[in-house]
Write a structure and sequence with these properties.
- The complex is a heterodimer of chains A (152) and B (506).
- With 152 residues, chain A is an alpha+beta fold.
- Chain A has one domain: Ubiquitin Conjugating Enzyme.
- Helices cover 34% and strands 14% of the residues of chain A.
- Chain A is built from four helices and four strands.
- A four-stranded antiparallel β-sheet of chain A has the order 1-2-3-4, with helices on one face.
- In chain A, helix 3 packs across helix 4.
- Chain A starts with a helix and ends with a helix.
- Chain B has 506 residues and is of the alpha+beta class.
- Chain B folds into two domains: 176 residues, no CATH class; 207 residues, Herpes Virus-1 (2-Layer Sandwich), CATH 3.30.40.
- Helices cover 25% and strands 13% of the residues of chain B.
- Chain B is built from 13 helices and 15 strands.
- In chain B, strands 4, 5, 6, 7 and 8 form a five-stranded antiparallel β-sheet that branches.
- In chain B, helix 3 crosses helix 4 and helix 4 packs antiparallel against helix 5.
- The longest helix of chain B has 23 residues.
- Chain B is elongated.
- The chains are: A alpha+beta (152), B alpha+beta (506).
- Chains A and B meet through helix 1 and helix 2 of A and helix 6, helix 8, helix 9, helix 12 and helix 13 of B.
- Chain B: It comes from Cladonia borealis.
């Protein structure tokens, strides 16, 4: 089932791409690994940058949730600032996942999170605090990182 | 005796039975077991320290400290107090051992010379005391604590061995086995030192063991790590007060921290951020474990099956199973859950046998009141055992990305989320017996969610206390559904935000 559904979702997303996102398969032979390029949303400090994400779909998909990670370093409260770049998405957690959630919803959510970080659900506490208490500084840092790591 | 003075004090250790003796007395064969698998002990190589306890053989089995089979921390043999120019009279031997399954073990031997002449004091146990005390206080009593001290030599020590006797009380973590073992006293009997140096020699061995519970109990291990992290704070503070301590001692907390730092949260000890990370990690683990269990096979099999009828279709007369995303035509057999969502029987069965939640709205099919493995699903009006988790924060659950906001089914959510499509509630579709869990296929552009596909009937069958979050849940349910519509995406993110701002202010 996984293959079929993934293929379906993939072709749907190719036909009707999400705005500001390019989805591709790094290896045509493996439908389970997707690469996503997200443009930093307008009005966010990530504007002008392009971020590479990796979506990994388990063989049990849709019974097990996919995982989403940032390959491009990003200054964001909800993305771990390590080599994993894991994104904190509630809907992807095992106890919240449901098979009717679709990849486009996951990706849209990820993008929305770029526009509006959820500081209360942060994985990077320091960045979250800065976001809440010193937005100016946060924006400055996020922009600097975007410039440094997410150049087009 | 004078001619073999070089070897007379050499201790020999038997690897077979862990016996030890003086070489000049019994030679290189174990007097107890006749084994020749022996090793002489010197200050560079002390095989006894590979073991958890040099003097108590019985405990080894309990501790299961098997160096050979388990991966070892790189610091396994690290000796931070190793002195490149050792004073043979005062070899403070410190040994900390990290063992992934058995926990952390440390052993420390201090040989203190209290004979004639001034000796430096306060180097060893003074520093260690707060550490031991801290552990003991925190764990409030590990089982099996022993404190023994025994000066070795001809005359009693002036100040005697320091007794580190922490308060021991009841065990606070019933599932864990913290074992603190203070052992003072040398492995050498006094008589073995009859040729020893003049003055009084004291040998202190301090060992401690922090052992994880049996089995792959990572989380508990992490609890220990966290407690240790706190302890290290305390310890560092107390050590800072020790002015004339050797510089290397200051690294001790760092070394321990490093050892604990095996996991992703390792460096996590001294900063708030790191603490956040630990907490997040633990919460995630906890929540993972709290994912709903399976529904009983009998109940799954007993779910009603119906041929799909036209009421189940979307506005354009099409629908699909939201699990496999295959189209469902009128007349195809589908399985209907008590929440009225329907799916292919095979698809929903595969999910339910792992998690008793509707793939769409996450209400379970098992009745709340009934045996764990009830062989029938609940009646539609009956309270499900699993209801959408009320503890999940809405911001995390809001998966409605790409979906136009939809009104929640209850007044609670309608209040803070003005319905953009007022018709939704009033349409008769709301009361239809079957609500497809599948994705209705909408003509594009689609502006609202068809009421017929509202994922949940309004709340009489939902418990009151679940209402608070019902709008978040509704939106999340629609997120999956609506996102298939394709046309909804053009305004997807904005829609999500309208939704978030409108209803997400809780």
């Amino acid at each position: 089932m996984a293959q079929k559904r993934i293929a379906k979702e993939y072709s749907e997303l190719q036909k009707k791409p999400l705005e500001g996102m390019k989805i591709s398969l790094p290896s045509e032979a493996d439908m389970h690994q997707w690469q996503i390029l997200i443009d930093g949303p307008k009005g966010s400090p990530y504007e002008g940058g392009v971020f590479t994400l990796h979506l990994s779909l388990p063989t049990e998909y849709p019974f097990k949730p996919p995982t989403l990670s940032f390959k491009t370093k990003i200054y964001h409260p909800n993305v771990t600032n390590d080599d994993k770049g894991s994104m904190c998405l509630g809907m992807l957690r095992a106890d919240e996942w449901k098979p009717s959630s679709k990849i486009d919803a996951v990706l849209s959510f990820a993008k929305a999170l770029l526009l509006e970080p959820q500081a209360d659900d942060a994985v990077e506490g320091g960045i979250a605090r800065e976001y809440k208490e010193n937005k100016k500084e946060f924006v400055k840092n996020a922009k600097a990182w975007t410039k440094q790591y997410a150049k087009r | 005796m004078a001619d073999n003075g070089g070897t007379q004090r050499e201790l020999v250790f038997c690897h077979s039975c862990h016996n030890e003796w003086l070489r000049h007395q019994h030679g290189l064969q174990c007097p107890d077991c006749d084994s020749e698998f022996v090793e002489t002990i010197d200050e560079h190589s002390d095989p006894r320290h590979n073991r958890t306890d040099t003097s108590d053989d019985d405990e080894d089995d309990v501790m299961g400290n098997n160096d050979d089979q388990l991966p070892q921390n790189p610091l396994h043999r690290h000796n931070p107090w190793h002195n490149p120019a050792p004073d043979p009279d005062e070899p403070d031997i410190e040994h900390v051992e990290w063992n992934p399954s058995a926990g952390i073990h440390f052993a420390r031997t201090t040989i203190r010379h209290t004979g004639p002449g001034p000796r430096p004091q306060g180097r060893g146990d003074d520093l260690f005391a707060p550490f031991i005390q801290g552990f003991s206080t925190l764990f409030e009593g590990a089982a099996n604590a022993q404190v023994q001290g025994r000066p070795v030599g001809g005359t009693p020590a002036r100040d005697g061995p320091r007794m580190l006797r922490p308060p021991f009380a009841t065990h606070p973590f019933p599932e864990q086995h913290h074992h603190i073992h203070h052992h003072h006293g040398g492995p050498w009997g006094g008589d073995r030192w009859r040729d020893g140096p003049p003055g009084v020699r004291q040998v202190f061995t301090t060992t401690g063991q922090f052992q994880r519970g049996p089995g792959p109990n990572n989380q508990q291990g992490q609890n220990v790590s966290n407690v240790l992290a706190q302890l290290l704070h305390t310890m560092q503070a107390s050590m800072a007060e020790q002015r004339d301590q050797p510089a290397s001692m200051a690294h001790f907390p760092a070394i321990i921290a490093q050892m604990l730092g095996n996991g992703a949260h390792g460096d996590a000890v001294f900063s708030d951020e790191a603490l956040d990370r630990i907490i997040t990690q633990m919460m995630e683990q906890t929540n993972t474990n709290s994912a709903p269990g399976p529904a009983s096979a009998a109940a799954i099999a007993a779910l009603p099956k119906k041929p799909a009828d036209k009421n189940m279709m979307g506005q354009d007369g099409k629908a699909e199973c939201s699990v496999c995303m295959d189209a469902v035509e009128i007349g195809d057999e589908v399985t209907v859950l008590p929440c009225n969502h329907w799916f292919h029987g095979e698809c929903v069965g595969a999910w339910l046998k792992e998690h008793d939640t509707c793939p769409h709205c996450r209400q379970g099919i098992m009745p709340k009141d009934g045996p764990q493995d009830a062989n029938a699903p609940r009646a539609p009006g009956e309270t499900p055992r699993n209801i959408p988790n009320p503890f999940v924060r809405p911001s995390r659950t809001n998966t409605g990305a790409g979906t136009p906001p939809s009104p929640g089914p209850g007044p609670g959510s309608a209040d803070n989320n003005p319905p953009p499509m007022p018709g939704a509630f009033t349409q008769p579709g709301m009361q239809q017996p079957y609500v497809p869990g599948g994705y209705p296929r909408y003509p594009e552009p689609r502006n609202f969610v068809s009421p017929g596909h509202h994922p949940q009937p309004p709340s009489p069958q939902r418990p009151q206390n679940d209402r608070r979050r019902s709008s978040g849940r509704e939106r999340s349910s629609n997120g999956g559904e609506g996102s298939s519509g394709g046309g909804g995406h053009s305004g997807g993110v904005t829609g999500w935000f309208r939704n978030l701002r409108g209803g997400g202010s809780r």
